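Lecture 7 notes. Example A: sequence first, then its C-alpha cells.
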Amino acid sequence: MRRWAPLVLLLLAGCASHSLLPDEDRIRLERSLPGRTYYLRQAMYLGPFWSDESKRFLSANVPDEIPWVVNPAGVPLDPGEPEAIVPVGTRVRVVKIEFPTSFVVARRDPFLPRFYPWVYLEVEGRPRNPAPILLLRRELRSQAEVVEDLERYLSPDDLRPRLRSLPEEVLEAINEKRLVEGMPAEAVEMAWGIPEQKRFSPSPEGRVEEWIWPFERRRARIVGGRLVSWVGEAPRVPVTAP
C-alpha cells in the first residue's frame, strides 16, 4: 500500500484550488459553460499568449497594462504585441473553462498566467487553433461571481441590434480601439475596455466621470454620459472580419 501513497497525495492535491472558488461550484461551471454562445461586449485584442504558441490572448484591455505574469524578480512579463482586433459584438462559443487547481497549476508553465481561470473560446471568423483564451480574475469566490466576471466581457444577448443604432463613425472607432469626441459612455468602454477606476463628481453640465485604466496611461472624461476629452491611446492594429 505504501507505494501508492505518493500517487494518492498527488490526486488529492489536484482537487485543491488555488482560487477561493468552492469545488462544487468549479465542477458545476466546468460542466455547464462549455457550448454556450456569447457576444463580445468590447472590441478585443488578439495576440500572443506569452510563450505558448498553441494559444492566443483575447483581451479587452491593452494586454501589457495588467501584470498577469511576473518573473522571479517581480518584473511583469509582456504577453506580446497584439496582432488583431476582434470587433465588438462578435459571436463566440465557450469550449471549456479551466480553473487553477493544484493539478492544473502544476501543468502550466510558470511564465504563463497560471493562477487565473482560463476560458477557451471559439471566435467567429477566426481559426480554432491557436485557441483564443480569455482570462478571468483570480479572487472569484462563487459560481455567481464567475458568471458575473465572464459577462463583463461576454454578453449572452446578441448585441448587433444595439450596435446598429450607433453612428457609423462611432462603431468604426470602437472596432479600431480609438475614441472620438461625443461618443456615449458605453461606446468608450466598448473601445478601450473596462477601466480600473471610475470617479464621479457633479457639475452644472451633468455628472462628471473620470475613467482611469491601469497604470494611469489612459484616462477619459465623460460629462452627461458623453466623452469630452481623453489622455493616451490604445495600440492600433488590423481589425479582423466579424
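Example B, a different protein, same format:
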Amino acid sequence: MKKSLFLATAVAASALLAACGGGDAASGDTRDSIRAVGSSTVYPFAKAVSEAFAKSYPDFKSPIIESTGTGGGMKLFCAGVGAENPDITNASRRMKKSEFDDCQANGVKEIVEIQVGLDGIALASAKGGIDMNLTPEIVYKALAAKPFGKDQTAKTWKDVDPSLPDAPILVYGPPSTSGTRDALKELILEAGCKTDAETKALKETDEDKFKQICTEVRSDGAYVDAGENDNLIVQKIEANPKALGIFGYSYLEENADKLQGLTVNGVEPTYENISSFAYPGARPLFIYVKKAHLAAIPGLKEFVGEWPKMWGKGGPLAKIGLVASPDDVMAKSADAATNFTPLNGDDLK
C-alpha cells in the first residue's frame, strides 16, 4: 500500500467515524489504529495475529490489544460506535443476550461473531507438585461458597474426598469479569452441582437460587482471585507446589516445562482431548467485530482477515496453544471473517 493511499484512508476514516456519531473529524477525534479489548485467554493469540498483520501490512499502524477480561471487554465494546470505542472484543465465551441487547441499545447494531478456535479450562499445579484426578463434583465441593446449599466446611482436599491428599485447598483463578470464570461456572461448577438431584431440580423451579448455590465461589481464601493476568497465576502455583491454578489451556501449553495439567474425569487437558471435546472443560473462543468500523478504521478488514490464515491445525496459533475448531465451524468462521455477516441475537442466552 502506498503511503498516500494510507493517508487518504485515514482521512476517510475521520469522516466515517464522525458519521457513526462517535468521532469529530473537525477536532481530530479519530483513530488510525485498530483497538481490541477483552479476554486474557484470547489475548496472546490476538497479539500473535497483530504481529503477523504488522509484517504483512507495514503501512498500517500496529493494533492496540488490551486484556480487560471478557466481561469488561463486552462493556467497552457495547458502549457505542465511534473513535472512542473499541473495534473488536475478544471473548473466551459466547456473547450473552443481555450484552447483545446493550450493544443494540447503544447503537452497536451490526456485530460480526467469529469463532477463532477452541480452548480448555485447565486445572494445573507445579511440575512435581500436588497431583489429583479431579471431577466436576470434587471441584464444586471444594470451591463452592455453599455446596448443595450447605455450609462450606472443607479445609483440605481430603475433606472433599478421602482419596485426595491431606493438603489445604488453595486455588488461584480468574476474577468474576473473566470469560474463563464464566466457563468454569458453566462447564465445571454447574456440572458438579447437578450431581445432586435436589439441587439439579432447582434449575427448573428457581433458577436464581440454582445459580447462587451452583456458581457462587467461596471467599474465605481457599479460592484466590488472581486478576486478569494469567501469567501471575502461573507464577503463584510455580512457587507453591500445593496450590492449583485455573486458566486457559494455552498457558499450560506455554509453561509445560513448569506445570502439569490435572485430569478431570480421568481425561488430561491436551490438544486432542479439547479438540474432540473429550475433556470436560473444552470451550470455544471468539472475536466480535463492529461492522460500522470496518470501512472507518484503516486495516481493520485486513487484520480480521489474518485470523483465518493462522488458526488452522498446525498453524501459527496452534503452536502457542490454540486448538483448531472443527472443519465445519472453521469454514463458517472464515466466511464470517470475509463477508462480515452480522450476528442474529435470537439464539443467544
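Note on Example B: The chain is about 40% helix and 15% strand. The chain has two domains: 3-119+284-347, 120-282.
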